[in-house]
Design brief:
There is one protein chain. It is built from ten helices and nine strands. With about 280 residues, the protein is an alpha/beta fold. It has two domains: about 5-70 and about 170-280, Vaccinia Virus protein VP39 (Rossmann fold); about 75-165, Adenine-specific Methyltransferase, Domain 2 (Adenine-specific Methyltransferase, domain 2). Strands 1, 2, 3, 4, 5, 6, 7, 8 and 9 form a nine-stranded mixed sheet that branches. Strand 2 (about 45), helix 2 and strand 3 (about 65) form a beta-alpha-beta unit. Helix 3 (about 70-80) crosses helix 4 and helix 4 (about 85-100) packs antiparallel against helix 7 (about 155-165). The termini are close together.
């Protein structure tokens, strides 16, 4: 029998996480609450990395993190190894945007969809509508330019890049699926999982076979490897049930995470969101 607990935000000072790259499904508002559930570990694994907020909050001394989005992992490696390149690229393109207007965004979007440049992905994430990362079924970026925002100022981004560069010094980045990224995990480690949610199929980059994913969780349990899983929840008055078998987890928490940015953009509505957090111990 699992334990279900609802957790509301309380008025305490939280860790400030300035995102370096915007990514859909960000756990920036929840990261501190999520890592409070962690037990001690040797190595931190995160195979659905995205914008990396939980990785940032953990600040691990040893970590292996991955994603199937090759340009995204390429971006993390550049931040880790050559932060000045990130700063110079963004400054140049941002200045070009201010001078030549919105067509610069669409030029860069077209270029990204041909060459999949990690730095172009950064620029798009910082200048698209509401920072909402969206790809079509061919893996091409298809969100539009945010006309009422000019993108983060390069001087401010420079400080953020340097901070993330320091924060990810001990992270090994892998471009691959969740099984490949976590294949070396042991029972002394911990895995944080934030896969594409079942109710958002086709909305974000890539998807997974959920039947295979549940077998993967079963295998982690068999090996006594601890996992923490963010997976669906409640939006407004609608509860999104997942197919995750109850025998695969021990505790289930509902974390308050603000309003749905996707619903705000698509339906012009504000809906309170709780996201489920599953633990297998």
């Amino acid at each position: 029998m699992y334990k279900l607990v609802y957790l509301r935000k309380v008025c305490v000072k939280k860790m400030k996480i300035d995102p370096i790259i915007k990514w859909s499904g960000s756990k920036r508002s929840q990261a501190q609450d999520i890592i409070k559930k962690f037990e001690e570990f040797d190595c931190y694994y995160e195979p659905f990395l995205g914008g990396g907020s939980v990785m940032y909050a953990v600040n691990p001394s040893h970590a292996i993190c991955g994603d199937i989005c090759e340009p995204l992992i390429g971006f993390w490696k550049i931040v880790q190894n050559n932060p000045q390149k990130v700063i110079e690229y963004y400054t140049n393109e941002w200045n070009r945007l201010q001078k030549d207007g919105y067509n610069v965004f669409y030029d860069i979007r077209s270029r990204f969809n041909i060459y999949k440049s990690p730095l172009d992905l950064l620029f798009l994430s910082r200048t698209c509508v509401n920072g909402l990362i969206r790809f079509n079924t061919e893996g091409n970026f298809n969100n539009s330019f945010h006309h009422t925002r000019k993108g983060i100022d390069p001087k401010r981004l420079e400080k953020i890049v340097i901070e993330w560069h320091k924060r990810i010094a001990n992270v090994q980045f892998i471009c691959g699926d969740y099984r490949e990224t976590t294949q070396t995990a042991t029972k002394n480690d911990i895995i944080y999982l934030d896969p594409p949610y079942e109710n958002t199929k086709g909305r974000y980059y890539g998807t997974i076979n959920y039947e295979h994913f549940y077998k993967y969780l079963e295998e982690l349990n068999r090996k006594e490897i601890k996992y923490v899983l963010s997976f669906d929840g409640i939006r407004g008055e609608k509860e999104y049930e997942t197919g995750i078998p109850k025998e695969l987890y021990v505790k289930k928490y509902m974390l308050q995470s603000g309003n749905s940015s996707f619903k705000k953009v698509m339906d012009k509505s504000n809906e309170q969101v709780y996201e489920a957090l599953y633990l297998n111990w």
